[in-house]
## 1
Amino acid sequence: MDLNLQKVHGSENDFFILDETELERKLTAAEIQRLSETLCDRVTGILNGADGILLVQQAASLEALNKMRVINSDGSEASMCGNGLRTVARYLAEKEQKDNFLVETMHADLKVRKAPDLAKGVQSFQVEISPVSFQAETIPMKLGNRVTIINSLIPELSDSIRFSVVAVPNPHLVAFVDHETLMGTEQERIAKLVNTENPWFPDGINVSFVEVLDKDELFVRTYERGVGFTNACGTAMCASSLLHVLINDGNFFEAIRVKNPGGMVKVVVHQDPDGNYWMELIGNATVTHHIQTTVEEALAGNFLKSTIRETDEQQDYLHFLEKIGVAGHK
């Protein structure tokens, strides 16, 4: 069975887009698990692997154009991926010739639309990130009788770093730190602690350290559950921006520049009349390669007969990186 893939990235958070609606049949759960292992392996996978696979499927929702599922490189499924959603939005926009539509995700139908290019040759899309919850049961989190944690010490993790916990809807543990702490070893220690068997976050949790560069500018470094340290995590950047507004007197409804090891996005934090929060994530949706193979060869991890066509979009993106200067935080 023929298999056409796109290798894509949002802020160098990279994925393979696999459109199941173009296949002769649906993939089984075991096949999806196996494909995540063979395609995404950083050593043996095709094109140096990826952070995960983005599945495009028929939507159950009548309002959404299609459904997106996010399969991490270890085969686990994430409830959302903001960087990935931008690339799926571009894929569907080009396939269906639409600039503004809804995409079904695990917890909500999310608005996506074409945005102005970030730089020459760097296509950009704007996507909704919601719903937001601070409640322990949505994380899930088990820290005694603590129902929410915002800018507070968690002695089980650190006696000096203050954390906030929020689901957007992926769960995030976020700390605002100085540059030395950002570049140090504490983040990895804590991230591995809460993403192996532990009594506090039974399903694991994404861990972000955030440096405030200016009132409307952040740098976010994320250890993503199921992935490890990643060049960027869209929902983490949105969670960090929301907490910046709430904790550091940032501004609602104004764009916050968020740098990351893979680039830069903009996040606008909204609050509706009922007091609910949601974010808009604006950033690149870059296609680096088009790949033709077969399901059988991909399941076997045999890519010798695959046809790979490289685009020139990555060069434009690298020029963009040079202009915004993110190298000092890698």
Note: The first strand starts at residue 2 and ends at 10.
## 2
Amino acid sequence: MDAGVIEQNSGPTRTQRIATFLAVVVPFLGLIAAIVFLWGRGLGWVELVLLAGMYLATGFGITVGYHRLFVHRSFETVGVVKLILAALGSMALEGSLFKWSAIHRKHHQHSDEPGDPHSPCHYGGGVWGVLAGLWHSHMGWMFTAGTPELSRYVRDLQADRLLRVANGLFPVWVLIGLLIPAGIAGWITGTWFGTLLGFIWGGLVRIFLVHHVTFSVNSICHVWGRRPFRCPDQSRNNFLVGVLALGEGWHNNHHAFPTSARHGLRWWEIDFSYLFIRVLQWVGLAWSVRVPEADTMAAKLRS
């Protein structure tokens, strides 16, 4: 199959389910290994810096690249920045550029309605209904949701040759994202054990954290938080997710103004991803940065 075309099917195949299972479970096993190695040794500065650095790099790949640039066209940039952001987003191991973008666009089209790939709002009330909805929206949907006609959601991305190449290299980017922290740690420490720790902390543990913080936008931010703007769905602003997810947790703001490059619309709504975009703009690598006008926001505020 051409790397630029998403296969149409009624649901994930057995192979896809196995791949999803491994992508979720292996980073968790890496977290357990990291905890075991912490016993009697502690966390060294090399592992900590690699964890933080790779978390930010691949997190911005998802938030700035996959989400705000490719899905919503919130700003424009040069080809090399597109390639870097696509590569970093791929290293987060949340799916290839085209598939991730298509699923997210479908989510916006059917947010919290039938057809939404990962809404938590269709499992009834009560404790069990809430828990079932949270599980589905956080992770469960990846094992059950079909992907029919997703290619029609990303025709604009498929038309870009550079993005077709970046999408097709998804497995390569994932491998590079694991080798970089291992290689840096091995170079600094000069030991195979240091290399292993770099792989675990900068690779597997980092993927685990990025996964579950990102997944929390789908789950927690449709259940708990504030809804300052009128929206037809249950999207909510959650401060903790907003900070940890580099600005993505201001989810009600985002659903009210999907094409905005800025999700934290008030001064206290911390949005590291928007700051990243502003830095790109300041150095001349981003333009046409879209932000809603004050009167447009006021018109959507709940009374």
Note: The chain has a mean pLDDT of 93.
